[in-house]
Write a structure and sequence with these properties.
The protein is mostly helical and about 475 residues long. It has 2 domains: about 170 residues, no CATH class; about 240 residues, no CATH class. It is built from 22 helices and no strands. Helix 3 runs antiparallel to helix 4, helix 3 packs parallel to helix 5 and helix 13 packs across helix 14. The longest helix is centred in the middle third of the chain and has 33 residues. The chain starts with 5 loop residues before the first helix and ends in an 11-residue tail after the last helix. About 35% of the residues are buried.
Length: about 475
């Protein structure tokens, strides 16, 4: 089930609201929220709900054991290792087994058969959430959760279950039992949800039509300018798609009394790649920083070990996104840039005009999205060739064969504008104006009506990060 679906907006969500807010008991509220979260997940993949519940049960039992033996270091460490093997092993089996087999088959004569397995939706996200619980428990940063219902609710909480943000247990540990739902929270949560919905439906979907049309025709040698239009459209699509989902998740969390941390902070205004990764998918980059980079020694080690740590973290970040070499290459690409910036380039960039810094960053970001988008090396090579070896584009022929991009093109300028923090600055500047406050609320209503209208008439409505 998608947040941006009529079933969710006019069926699932209103029914949940009705049941949740008429129930006074916190315990029953949590049970209702858990049941609806399981229904939400089962709507798309009913058989894999068992996998998620078993994984949660395993982490629940191992968490109790880690807490029980917290004063016996060897046993506690052994339980941590077992937890990592079981939880990450589950992710590796479903996400990477066929990728591993495919690469082994390149070097053996008797090919190994692929296994019949479908990637469970959201497995990368809920796996990392479970691991954060286990790691923080091992490091005595949190208390063990003795209620299976509460732990299951944390893992399966539907706002962030499918595509994040990656919510750490420590963030909502207290809110699982002691949160307060308020009118102001519900009101601000609904507004945040509508903003995310409009980012997804009104902008990301339109950019997706353009990007898919162009990347699907790259073999036809469509020319340089059309290729760069496709790259620009995908750059905008992936931001508004993912940040829109995060906005909806954060908004829904507010409605039910949960505080999820921000996941995006206008990443396309960055003036370096280091800054970009402080602003993009914040929950993932901070997860790898705290649970991989720092435990490896971070930057407080010998230089070669520090370089090793950067490479490990970013190759893992790439592979986390999918079982394909382009994702590993994408991670390595950013690792190299970050190393170059940290070693010497950042000092040079600081002296350059801000516009030059921004141009440097946005070009490298867009180049990175080329690698990210092209899942085969052949397609990557074709894209790079068409992007950087100039060839005139036949716009008339292309548009005649892809007329649906004309409507999407109307949203390119708004997409670029809203990639910058213009509206938050205006909102802050005029926050004490009653008239502007009323106008803001009217705009929210209009955005919701427009989003529903688009959903009613359109069939194209994917979420990029669902497959991760």
């Amino acid at each position: 089930m998608l947040f941006s679906s009529l079933t969710f907006l006019f069926g699932f969500l209103p029914l949940l609201f009705l049941l949740y807010f008429i129930i006074p008991s916190r315990k029953i509220k949590n049970i209702v929220l858990l049941l609806f979260s399981l229904i939400f997940y089962a709507w798309g993949e009913p058989k894999y709900i068992v996998l998620m519940l078993i994984t949660t049960l395993v982490s629940y039992v191992l968490g109790l054991l880690i807490d029980h033996f917290k004063n016996r270091t060897k046993i506690k460490r052994s339980l941590l290792v077992i937890s990592i093997i079981l939880i990450i092993g589950n992710l590796i089996f479903f996400k990477y087994t066929n990728f591993i087999i495919k690469n082994i088959n390149l070097f053996v004569s008797n090919e190994i058969s692929f296994i019949e397995v479908i990637l469970p939706i959201g497995i990368s996200f809920y796996t990392f959430q479970i691991l954060s619980y286990i790691f923080d428990l091992y490091m005595n940063k949190i208390k063990v959760q003795k209620s299976f219902i509460s732990l299951a609710l944390y893992v399966s909480l539907f706002p962030q279950l499918i595509a994040g943000p990656i919510v750490r247990y420590s963030t909502i540990e207290n809110e699982l039992q002691n949160r307060k739902e308020t009118f102001s929270g519900v009101k601000s949560g609904i507004k945040r949800f509508v903003i995310g919905l409009s980012k997804k439906v009104l902008i990301a979907n339109q950019m997706g039509v353009i990007a898919d049309s162009i990347f699907g025709n790259l073999g036809a040698e469509i020319g340089t300018s059309i290729t760069w239009l496709g790259i620009l459209a995908y750059t905008l699509q992936i931001y508004f798609d993912f940040s829109g989902y995060s906005d909806m998740a954060i908004g829904l969390g507010k409605i039910f009394g949960f505080t999820f941390l921000e996941n995006f902070n206008y990443p396309y205004i960055s003036k370096s790649i280091t800054e970009f990764w402080r602003r993009w998918h914040i929950s993932l980059s901070s997860w790898f920083r705290d649970y991989v980079y720092i435990p490896l020694g971070g930057n407080r080690v010998e230089k070669w070990k520090w370089i090793r740590n950067i490479l490990i973290v970013w190759i893992l970040t790439g592979i986390w996104h999918g079982a394909s070499w382009n994702f590993a290459l994408w991670g390595l690409y950013f690792a190299i840039i970050l190393l170059i910036e940290k070693i010497f380039l950042s000092k040079i960039l600081e002296k350059a005009p801000k516009f030059v810094q921004w141009m440097y960053s946005i070009f490298l970001i867009m180049f990175g999205w080329i690698i990210f988008r092209c899942e085969s090396l052949e397609l990557l090579g074709t894209t790079l060739q068409q992007a950087f070896i100039y060839k005139k584009s036949d716009w008339i022929t292309f548009i005649n064969g892809n007329s649906d991009i004309l409507f999407g093109a109307l949203f390119i300028i708004p997409a670029i504008i809203f990639s910058f923090p213009i509206l938050p600055k205006l909102k802050e500047k005029f926050k004490n104006s009653v008239i502007l406050y009323c106008c803001y609320n009217v705009i929210i209503v209009i955005l919701f009506i427009m989003s529903v209208t688009f959903l009613t008439s359109a069939t194209y409505n994917p979420f990029i990060y669902f497959r991760f």
